[in-house]
Design brief:
alpha/beta; Rossmann fold; 2 domains; six-stranded parallel β-sheet; 10 helices; 12 strands; binds 2'-monophosphoadenosine-5'-diphosphate
Length: about 280
């Protein structure tokens, strides 16, 4: 009997732009795993039904993207500590007993891309995280676990930055990292790594922090990639910082999900290099 390949997907709205199917197909080819990974456009009010239907279809797990990441933990019998802290999940594992495990691999992906692929140390670093929405919430825990000396969360709406800092206060103390919430106007210079977790580039808006936060040689990272990151990266380059887009984060968060599902670690650095060459 020929068994059909294990089925996975990414669920989102919109989802047509997602590069996850190509990335997971490449991981599967390079690790000799047999699987199928598809895109599923889910109605805005239909996430739970979409997951149930995919489980019934025989799906083994799925990635979750905008706007469903915050709804995903509620479907799970168990959440990883980092998904609990973020209040959001990007990876679901459908277990053989029918229960769902939820994880959030976004932060691990960001940290892996900064430290391994870009070769920039977070241990002892002074980090500025710009934004306090879902994207920022998904990465703050793993950023703290990387052992920075300091993280400032800067956001247009200060109350949201303060809430994010409050929910991560215990982890920051444990890590002996200083964690602060500020408005962009109150920021001072002296950051080694600046991470844009706002949707400002996509909205065509100005970069939401003053250029004085950039010192020459600092890493300026946009969690978006492609045209959505261009405004921030041009701004960083013009002020002597080292720009980097979020393509590596995308590949690395996918690698974490793949390892969780398949028990095999894919060669993520190779796949990132291939995607970067295609983009160039
Ligand atoms: P996501 O899930 O992508 O993080 P979100 O939860 O809507 O989306 O959060 C968007 C983030 O980008 C927020 O930090 C938002 O700032 P506010 O909390 O003040 O709304 C920030 N943002 C979006 N557009 C912005 C702009 N034009 N200038 C500054 N910040 C912006």
């Amino acid at each position: 009997m020929i068994s059909s390949p294990d089925l996975y997907c990414v669920m989102g709205h919109p989802v047509a732009h997602s590069r996850s199917p190509d990335i997971h197909a490449r991981f599967a080819a390079l690790t000799g795993q047999t699987l199928r990974y598809e895109r599923r456009l889910i109605a805005l009010d239909g996430f739970a039904d979409g997951v149930r239907a995919f489980v019934a279809e025989g799906g083994r797990g799925c990635n979750v993207t905008v706007p469903f990441k915050f709804e995903a933990p509620a479907l799970a019998a168990e959440c990883s500590p980092r998904a609990q802290l973020a209040g959001a999940a990007n990876t679901l594992v459908f277990r053989p007993d029918g229960s769902i495990f939820a994880d959030n691999t976004d932060g691990l992906g960001l940290v892996a891309d900064i430290t391994r692929n870009a070769g920039v140390a977070l241990q002892g670093a002074r980090v500025l995280l710009v934004g306090a929405g879902g994207a920022a919430a998904g990465v703050l825990g793993p950023l703290l676990q990387a052992g920075p000396a300091h993280i400032t969360v800067a956001n247009r709406t200060l109350a949201k930055a303060q809430a994010l800092v409050a929910s991560h206060g215990a982890l920051a103390s444990l890590q002996k990292s200083e964690l602060l919430a500020l408005t962009p106007q109150a920021l001072e210079a002296n950051f080694d790594v600046i991470i844009n977790a706002t949707a400002s580039s996509m909205a065509g808006a100005e970069v939401p922090v003053p250029a004085s936060v950039l010192r020459p040689g600092a890493l300026a990272y946009d969690m978006m990639y492609g045209p959505a990151a261009a405004g921030f990266l041009d701004w960083a380059r013009a002020h002597g910082a080292v720009p980097r887009d979020g393509l590596g984060m995308l590949v690395e968060q996918a690698a974490e999900a793949f390892a969780l599902w398949r028990g095999v670690r894919p060669p993520s650095a190779q796949v990132l290099q291939e995607l970067q060459q295609q983009a160039a």
